[in-house]
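Hi F.,

I've been meaning to write this up properly since the lab meeting, where we talked about keeping a consistent format for the predictions we share between groups. The idea is simple: the sequence comes first, exactly as it goes in, then the structure tokens exactly as they come out, then a line or two of notes. No screenshots and no reformatting. I'm using this chain as the first example so we have something concrete to point to.
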Amino acid sequence: MVRKKHLSSAMIAVIAVLVLIFLYLPIIIVVLYAFNADTVNSFPMSGFSLKWFQVMAQNDDLMRALVHSLQVAVVSTGLACLLGVPGAYAMYRHDFPGKEVLNRIVMLPLILPGILTGIAMLTFFKALGISQGMPAVVLGHSTFLIATVLPQVYARLRRLDHNIVEAAQDLGASGMQTFVHVILPNIKTAIISSALLSFTLSMDEIPVTYFLNGVFSTLPIQIWGMTRNGITPEVNAISSIIFAVSLAAILVSNLLNRQED
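Output, unedited:
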């Protein structure tokens, strides 16, 4: 019986390792090829070089798309926090019919297929007279990023000790003073964590951006266009940088969430 348990545990461990290899080996290969001294992606590599990062930096279209992506991600994340944090606080402070349903519906932009969200937003924005371009992309990204910020902040608020709110009110603090001086300091790590995750999601977004971008290009759209004729070494270089930044943001986000727990 004990032997069977050991065999089962070993099989589960082997399967888990194989799954991880399947998921992350392609990313590791892309990172390795970013340092390939040769123009052709082949293994074994002929040597290591940093020249493709220099070529990447000299690609004006790629750098322009990177700037666009950073602008969209920063503004969209800021808007998502400005709307998501007060929304979460309102749900925390007030009980109303359908609150739990709303808490689940707000996740729809993340659950729905990206192409459906993109088409829906394009149709809606055209009806409002909002043309395709940077403002439309920012609004589109902010919409689904709120679905990242609001649930995380609301979950943190639900774990908050309500006694500190009552104590602040007993001492004469107004609702705004309580929110700024009591609530925000206690949920700041949840806000930072959701903002980092939102920034990462915005940098990686393609379907919504594709339908709303108009004449300008973001980094994922630019990379997608460059790979139509094969993956070039500078694509591997920029992809490696994106992977490193995204990984760092996710690790910091998880660390902050653990500190909250």
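Notes:
The longest helix spans residues 60-93.
Residues 52 and 58 are 10 Å apart (CA to CA).

If this format works for you, I'll send the rest the same way.

G.
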